[in-house]
Specification:
Blueprint lengths: L1 H18 L14 H11 L1 H29 L2 H16 L2 H15 L6 H27 L2 H9 L4 H31 L11 H12 L2 H35 L1
Length: about 250
């Protein structure tokens, strides 16, 4: 552990020292100059769209994932077949390919034209829903068979058994994985920049074309995503600690 920390500090020191080199042009995002402040404001405005598309896509994916998981609950043969086909097909399609297909394919195939935001939301939600369906399935199936048998013994209906016995226990177990999947969604949202969404990545690309300083611009982009992911990750860890504390009580 100490060796890993030492390597981390060395890496940070190397980056800081290299930033002092004349080869770097940090002036393009320096708050000490008017141009730098303008560029910083331009880059930071991408946070709004990055967060918006990530949250919207994730909420829709949660709903779709739950609907796809229903066959696992009812154990219907045909519905289970639908569940497997849906999950396996959508998990196999790369997010970038899905985004391009939704944006350019839906208008031709179904006559549905979506703007870049909703095309990105649709593509990300479809892809993520397959993963969330598996998270839900694992959570439901992780509840011991004895819990269901006890619910049957006291005469609970199937609906009451799922609502009061199985799902509350499953939800507690899937919350941390859901948090990790949201972190994944935040990173995958950068792919929507390819169809023109003015998020963090798109704005960085535009600044590179005008300032011709890709190293500095993309280094700042990494920092933006790092801050965003660290905040979300801290929230996920806090949630995990709370759940563990509640279980011990």
């Amino acid at each position: 552990m100490m060796r890993l920390r030492n390597l981390w500090f060395l890496a940070v020191a190397a980056v800081v020292l290299s930033g002092c080199s004349s080869k770097w042009g940090w002036y393009i995002i320096s708050p000490d100059t008017e141009t730098g402040r303008t560029n910083l404001a331009f880059l930071l405005r991408g946070f709004e769209l990055t967060i918006s598309i990530s949250v919207t896509s994730f909420v829709i994916a949660m709903v779709l994932g739950m609907l796809v998981t229903i066959p696992v609950v009812y154990k219907s043969r045909w519905l289970l077949a639908f569940n497997r086909i849906y999950v396996e097909v959508l998990r196999s399609v790369p997010n970038l390919v899905m985004i391009i297909w939704v944006f350019y394919g839906l208008p031709v195939l179904l006559g549905i034209e979506l703007n870049v935001f909703w095309a990105g939301v649709t593509a990300l939600a479809l892809g993520e829903s397959a993963f969330l369906a598996e998270v839900y399935r694992a959570g439901i199936q992780s509840v011991g068979r004895g819990q269901e048998e006890a619910a049957d013994a006291i005469g609970l209906t199937f609906k009451d058994k799922m609502w009061f016995v199985v799902l509350p226990q499953a939800v507690r177990r899937i919350l941390p994985p859901l948090g990790n999947q949201f972190v994944y969604m935040l990173k995958m949202s950068s792919l929507v920049s390819i169809i023109g969404l003015s998020d963090l990545t798109r704005r960085a690309n535009e600044l590179v074309t005008s300032e011709y300083r890709p190293l500095e611009t993309y280094s700042f982009l990494i920092l933006e995503y790092l801050v965003l992911i660290l905040i979300v990750s801290a929230g996920v860890r806090w949630l995990e600690r709370r759940l563990k504390a509640d279980q011990r009580q």
